[in-house]
Amino acid sequence: MRGYRNTRPMTASEFERFDAKVRRDRNGCWCWTSALDGSGYGLLNVEGSVRRAHRLSYAHFIGSIPNGICVLHDCPGGDNPACVNPDHLWLGTRGDNNTDRNRKGRSGVSKGSYNPNTALTEADVRVIRRRISHGERKRVVGNDYGLGKSAINRMIRGASWSHVPLVGA
User: Fold this and answer.
1) Residue 84 sits in which domain range?
2) What is the pLDDT of residues 125-162, one digit of tens each?
């Protein structure tokens, strides 16, 4: 499924399997009820290859998808990656897709204390930056927080925790 392949219209038997996995809701979405990927997009095995259901729907009902082009969603009931209603689908570039994803809050990047892989808070970052700016050694400050020198350097430059204003900025 890596990369975006051009998708052809489904055969009658493929469409029958496809349609059996769709539930229409009151917002007009055709919700995929079978296998989903990690981002909530429907998946269907066609000719031994796993395909995204919304791309199959677009190709079947609307037409050819140029190579490298994304199929995006605009559902009236809100963001719904599982929707395969061709009336809610449109074509766009990878840049369009990234912009749309970010606008919908699905960037997948959790900043700062919202990131489950960090033990720091924004307040910790401000204290660390303040301590360094007042002349404390990076190694000492880093040891207090379980951070290495490179992590401290990235934090001081604003390469990490960039959403926290730099000291004196």
Assistant:
1) 12-103
2) 999 999 999 999 999 999 998 888 888 998 988 888 88
Same domain, 75 and 132: no
Burial 88-124 (b: 16+ CB within 10 A, else e): bbebeeeeebeebbeeeeeeeeeebeeeeeeebeeeb
Structure tokens at 123: 């307040």
Same domain, 92 and 150: no
How far, in Å, CA of 58 to CA of 121, rounded?
44
Q: Name the domain boundary from 86, 103, 120.
A: 103
The pair of structure tokens assigned to 35 is 């296998």
- Nearest Cα neighbor of 155 from 136, 137, 168, 142 is 142
The total of structural domains in the chain comes to 2
* 57-83 mean pLDDT: 91
Tokens describing residue 143: 């040891």
For residues 60 and 123, state if they share a domain: no
Q: Under DSSP, is residue 134 helix (H, G, I), strand (E, B) or coil?
A: coil
* Residues listed for the chain: 169
Say whether both 38 and 116 belong to one domain: no
For residue 155, which phi and psi values (nearest 5 degrees)?
-65, -40
